What we know:
This protein has about 140 residues and is of the alpha+beta class. It is about 25% helix and about 25% strand. It has a domain at about 50-140. A five-stranded antiparallel sheet has the order 1-2-3-4-5, covered by helices on one side.
Amino acid sequence: MVVWAPPPPPPSGAASGGAASGGAAWGEAEAARWVRIPPDARAALPRPLIARLLLNRLGRRLRRLGWRVERRYDETIPLLRVHFPGVFSLGDSIMVAAGEDGWWYRSSTGELLAPCARLDAAVPLIASSLERWVSGASWETGGA
């Protein structure tokens, strides 16, 4: 575990030489620096307006194909709730997150589905993931 500790006081008689001479350790301004991000860190999120625009595009496309879509933009993270047609109780929440090469649609399971720039690739992936849920639910209930 890493714990922050205040910087040590300047040595007695040392001149305050600024950040270039180590002044950052004595409470002065420090320039930006690279920080390693752990692999299990949450993906970066876009600004809410960008996320809403990208989710609206996806929602329009899914509605044209008969999927039931509801926007949940009043939450902290804008989500698009997608329901299987005819089975309102089963669905998935899609959000926008940073991927390797830009913004991606991300499932509530944490799976990156497809880049937002490739809407034609995201729609079939969302449909197939929801169809798996519905087929699993109907198998467990005996098709009822």
